[in-house]
Each structure stands twice: as C-alpha cells, then as structure tokens.
Amino acid sequence: MATSQCEGAQQLLPQAIAALVENALYQADLVGRFLNAVRHQLPASKQKEPIALPADFLLELGAALRLAMWERQGFRPYLPDFPSAETAIVELVQRCWPDQTGPSTGESILRRVLETWFGHFAWSGLEELGVDVLLDTPGSAALFDDLAGFLWAHRVQNNEGQPAGP
User: Fold this and answer.
1) 128 partner at 20 to 30 Å CA-CA among 46, 102, 121, 164?
2) What's the rounded Cα separation, in Å, for the pair 64 and 96?
3) 163 in helix, strand or coil?
4) Residue 27 above 70 pLDDT?
5) Confidence of residue 1 (pLDDT cuts 50, 70, 90)
6) Domain limits of the chain?
7) In DSSP terms, which residues pair with 109 in a beta bridge?
8) DSSP string, 115-127
C-alpha cells in the first residue's frame, strides 16, 4: 500500500508544479494587462517612460487581480474571508508607498490567494477551459443548481429547435 501512495505522490507532483506554473503565468498576464490599461490612462508624454516596480508589489498585485477575477465570476460567496479586490489593491499601494498614501492597514493576500486556488479550484481549469473552476464547497448545492441551469440554457438543439436526443 505504501508503494502505491508513493507512486501517486510521484504522479501528483508534476501535475502540481505544472498547475502552479500555469497559475503564475495567468497572474503575470493579469498584471501586464492591468498595467497596460493604467499606462493608457496617463498623458501621452508619460506613456513611453519606463517604470520600475518592486517584485513584491507585482506579485501581490497579481493576487489582488486574481481576487477581482473571482469576484467577476461570482465566486465571492464560496471563498474564505478576503477583502474586496479594490480594497486589496488600495491596501497594497499603502503598504508599498506609505509616505504618499497614508498608513497601511492591510496585510499580504498573496499566500492566502494561492492557498485558496490550490485547495479549492481545479488546477487545469485555466488551461483546459480558460476560466477558474471552483470545486466542492460548503453550499455547493446552489452551485450545482446554477451549473444545471447554465447547462440547460445552453444545451444543444436539433434542427427543429428541440433538445437533441441521445
């Protein structure tokens, strides 16, 4: 029995590493798109100036933007107690540049977001479906009802407009 558990762990490790890499790439893409959008809000003369940002700030920003994506997907009621994405971003800026924005009251959410994703979301959801897929949670009956309603509304229909049979 111990041998099969070791074999299972050996198979799981590459999957976990691949999932973490995919997750990191996704969050890096979110940060890049966010910063490009912010840059386009600057005056034209400032848009081409290089900007150096601390690595810790960029990692935390990725976590806050991931939280924003979860909010947009409607996962908020199923997640642990997080600040809103907007609050997380404001608190992040306050932690990184306290002299300009006032005292910081927030704490890092990077680890909590990563642990939540790793423990509650399908690791291959982004790669296979292009979205995060929340797995079994307390109150998942409502989630399954929502999923059933979505699938029913988007079922394949035959040429007569009737649901396709088996």
Assistant:
1) 164
2) 14
3) strand
4) yes
5) very low
6) 2-134
7) none
8) HHHHHHB-TTHHH
Count of H helices and E strands in the chain?
8, 0
Structure tokens at 18: 């691949």
CA angle 72, 114, 137 (to 5 degrees): 65
Reading the block at residue 118, the tokens are 């790793």
Interatomic CA distance for residues 160 and 166, integer angstroms: 15
Measuring CA to CA, which residue among 111, 33, 20, 108 is closest to residue 69? 33
* Sequence-distant (≥ 6) Cβ neighbours of residue 108 within 8 angstroms: 60, 95
Q: Which two tokens stand for residue 111?
A: 């680890």
Is the pLDDT at 124 greater than 90, yes or no? no
Neighbours of 61 (CB within 10 A): 22
Q: What is the pLDDT of residue 159?
A: 61
Q: How is residue 24 written in tokens?
A: 């990191």
Instruction: Compute how many other C-beta atoms are within 10 angstroms of the C-beta atom of residue 132.
Output: 18
Residues written for the chain: 166
**What is the dihedral angle through the alpha carbons of 90, 91, 96, 99, rounded to the nearest 10 degrees?**
80
